[in-house]
Amino acid sequence: MLNRIVILTAKLLGGLPFRVIYGFSDLMYFVVYHVAGYRRKVVAENLQRSFPEKPPGELKRIERQFYHYFCDLLLETLKGLYLREEVFRKHFVWPESGVFDEEIKSRKNIIMLGSHFGNWEWGSICMPLYLQHRLYGIYKPLSNKPIDAWLQQRRSRFGLRLVKMSQVARHIIQEHGSPAMFAFIADQTPVDVENAFWIRFLHQDTPFFHGPEKLARRTGFPVYVYKIERPGRGCYSISFHKLCDDARPLPAGELTKRYAEFLEQQINEAPSRWLWSHRRWKRKKPSNASSI
Each residue of 40-97: pLDDT tens digit? Predict the structure, then answer.
């Protein structure tokens, strides 16, 4: 029953005008923030620890802005599962042309690092509309198999190919000579904190997955990071920044550190656009873990 409600809601939102969507979002914000208080303690604690220099009034303002954006994001995500191509091209803009021309000419694969910043779901769905590379999104399947299958079908309708981390090596071999991009959301909390890269991030010891860097060091593929900006409600643009041409000569952890520094800069520029409700610092640094 719940599966049908989720799918029906997404279909309904997909056909509604954006102004109606954001009217629902404003009402949802009041319920989520003021009535239910969804994870307010988690968000407040994350903000206080990440911005110790900011006064309480400013932290409260960022908190409210985050919840406003969080509600927009949830409804945008569902609506995006049924947006048509021409609508996506209007609302998610790729201003840079030719950014990957060098890799296309040399038929190089690319590793792309993203984060829970801005509307990453829209980014993953519509990036294949602009890319010449085949796009592989590395993801963790949901335990709800019907919803997982439905999400895979809706997310991949413009060309995104979703693969598990354990299948990446096979696809790299298959794509030899045919340029492909392998995209990771790289700011999730790793379970194996002892083998994670520990970096001082937002004033806190923070574990980062070693998988993307491990893949980059094995393959020598160029590594990029993307930045999603939101000039207005329902409007996004994406830009790309190269972290390295080849990670193999870099010291261990250097690539991950560059990614963390880039993400921290984004968050400082627009703090309400990151996923503060995520329990990013729920695991403590082990005594035997090394810092970068």
Answer: 999 999 999 999 999 999 999 999 999 999 999 999 999 999 999 999 999 999 877 7
Q: What is the rounded CA–CA span in Å between residue 95 and residue 88?
A: 14
- Amino acid letter at 133? H
What kind and span of H or E run contains 204? Answer: strand 204-208
**Helix/strand number for the chain, H first, E second:** 11, 9
- Rounded to the nearest 10 degrees, what angle do helices 40-50 and 56-80 cross at? 120
Phi, psi dihedral angles at 164 (to 5 degrees): -75, 155
Q: Which tokens go with 10?
A: 């997404």
Classify the phi-psi angles of 253: left when phi > 0, otherwise alpha if psi is within -120 to 50, otherwise beta.
Answer: left
Handedness of CA 151, 154, 157, 160 (dihedral sign): negative
Average pLDDT over residues 134-156: 92
pLDDT for residue 28: 98
Which of the pair, 105 or 186, is modelled with greater confidence? 186
Residue pair 196/238 in contact by the 8 Å Cβ criterion: no
Q: Are 103 and 133 contacting, i.e. CB atoms less than 8 angstroms apart?
A: yes
Alpha-carbon distances, residue 178 vs 136, 144, 181, 211, 248 (angstroms): 13, 33, 10, 23, 22
Domain residue ranges in the chain: 2-273
| Beta-ladder partners of 8 | none
Model confidence pTM above 0.90: yes
pLDDT exceeds 90 at position 107: no
